[in-house]
Amino acid sequence: MVEQPLTHLDPLGRARMVDVTQKEVSARRATARGRVLMTPETTALIARGEVSKGDVLAVARVAGIQAAKRTSDLIPLCHPVGIGGILINFRIDDAWVEVEARVETVDRTGVEMEALTAVSVACLTIYDMCKSVDRAMTLGEITLWEKTGGRSGAYRRQGDEVGEGRDGPGSSGSAIFDR
């Protein structure tokens, strides 16, 4: 692998925002995923909609969408992007809830940070809504799974298919939730 220079540093090593004005506008998409690990009792409460604070997945979905739209306010050198669409879905297994965010745009720069931010905030929201029953929850495995568009082309996480769970299609105990 050829080592690339860091693009957010000027020749003197100071932080700078990359100039994207000369880049071509193109359709771009990014998909990210993350998990909240928890007890089986907590996942059961979420799946049944019985968490005292309300519909965990509905609130986490809205939080993720809001976060994606505010990414450039949170990440200092991230460009504001005109987001065309955001889709957030969940998969529940016995010991975790997986969040997947897909963000699309037609712009000069990608939406990887928006997808990762959406997943992160949706996971934090799940924790916030369920902490009264399970303070030992762990947030993790937040990663970019796929990106398309732009000069660098497509990227897909090696060995994994976007749209399939990490445990393979039809893994035991998991269910996709889209409410």
Protein structure class: alpha+beta
CATH C-level label of the domain at 26-149: Alpha Beta
Question: Number of helical segments?
Answer: 4
Mean pLDDT: 88
The general outline is elongated
The succession of helices and strands, N to C, reads EHHHEEHEEE
Q: Low-confidence parts lasting 5 or more residues at pLDDT below 50? A: 162-172
Could you say what the CATH architecture of the domain at 26-149 is? 2-Layer Sandwich
Question: What percent of the residues sit in helical stretches (DSSP H or I)?
Answer: 25-40%
Sequence of strands across the biggest β-sheet: 5-4-1-3-2-6
State the end-to-end CA separation.
42 Å
Find the CATH topology of the domain at 26-149.
Answer: Alpha-Beta Plaits
Biggest sheet descriptor: 6 strands, antiparallel
| Count of distinct strands | 6
Radius of gyration: 18 Å
Percent of sequence in beta strands? 25-35%
What is the CATH superfamily of the domain at 26-149? Answer: Molybdopterin cofactor biosynthesis C (MoaC) domain
In short:
With 179 residues, this protein is α+β, with helices and mostly antiparallel strands. The protein is 26% helix and 28% strand. A six-stranded antiparallel sheet has the order 5-4-1-3-2-6, with helices on one face.
Structure overview:
The protein has helices spanning 40-48, 56-69, 71-74, 112-130; strands at residues 26-37, 83-92, 96-107, 138-148, 155-156, 175-177. A hairpin with a 3-residue loop joins strand 2 and strand 3 (96-107). It is 26% helix and 28% strand. It has a domain at 26-149: 2-Layer Sandwich (Alpha-Beta Plaits), CATH 3.30.70. The chain has 179 residues and is of the alpha+beta class.
